Amino acid sequence: MPLLQRQIIAALLLCCIAFTARGETLRLVTDAWAPYVYEVDGQATGLDYDISREVLRRLGIDLELQFLPWKRCLLALEQGHADGILDIFHLPEREAQMLFVEEPLSEVEFVLFYARNRPYPYRRLEDLRDLVIGISPGYWYNDETFRTSALFSREEAPTHEANLGKLVRHRVDLVVNDRRAGLYLSRQMGMQQQVDYNRKAVGRDPMYLALRRDPALQQLASDFTRELRRFKREPAYARLQQRYANPRQLKP
Question: CATH code at 45?
Fold first, then answer.
């Protein structure tokens, strides 16, 4: 192997291990989505935040988290202002810019929320004909049949809170959101008696930690996967799952 080629390979290897060797801070961005990741009294918390912080602690890395609107999260990673995004769906078109940790943090269950005084039962796609469904911009809904159906119309809202507000004011007929996230948000907004959800899910999808596609972060992605899998086998992980099991009991 030529000397120059060996030097390039050695430089890349040093770059890959430098991040963890120096015990740096990992700068992540995310959009608040309780109970997975959110703020209480100015402090980050949530199931996936707690999991990620513990895994990174074991790797000797501090976690710095910034909350941004979802589209700004994607832009921050693209422009190199963040090392990664906490809680993102793994899409093939994102792989060019993102390095996805192999092991998922959580799995979301998308359901349709309705106003209790105007319920719309959902058992099959045909039940949604001619309805208006509130969605969140930039969010991915895994079920292709639901995502591409022309039976109903979709209306974006700037925030998840705005979506629920439109629901109780009958400006949309249904709102699609993760079951746990919607339950937490309805309690936070004092709407738990006004909204409920259809028990039939419209889709499920795992959420991941995605890092900036950079050779310096390649080793970290592998290490994070290994430690996350190990953590999932421990009682501490089960206790975390239990703590966030009922979103309506969490502190808003």
Answer: 3.40.190.10
Q: Residues 222, 146: one domain?
A: no
Number of independent structural domains in the chain:
2
Tell me how far apart the 2 most distant CA atoms of the chain are, in Å.
74
Whether residue 198 sits in one domain with residue 125: yes
In the numeric block, which tokens belong to residue 233? 């086998």
Are the CB atoms for 168 and 191 separated by under 8 Å? yes
Cα–Cα nearest to 212, from 44, 59, 74: 74
Least-confidence region, from 9-23, 104-118, 125-139, 171-185: 9-23
- The range of the structural domain enclosing residue 68 comes to 3-106+206-249
Question: Which residue is listed with tokens 């290490």?
Answer: 223
pLDDT in tens, 182-195: 999 998 899 999 99
160: Cβ–Cβ under 8 A, 6 or more apart, which residues?
33, 136, 177, 181, 182, 185
Q: What's the pTM value of the predicted model, to 2 decimals?
A: 0.78
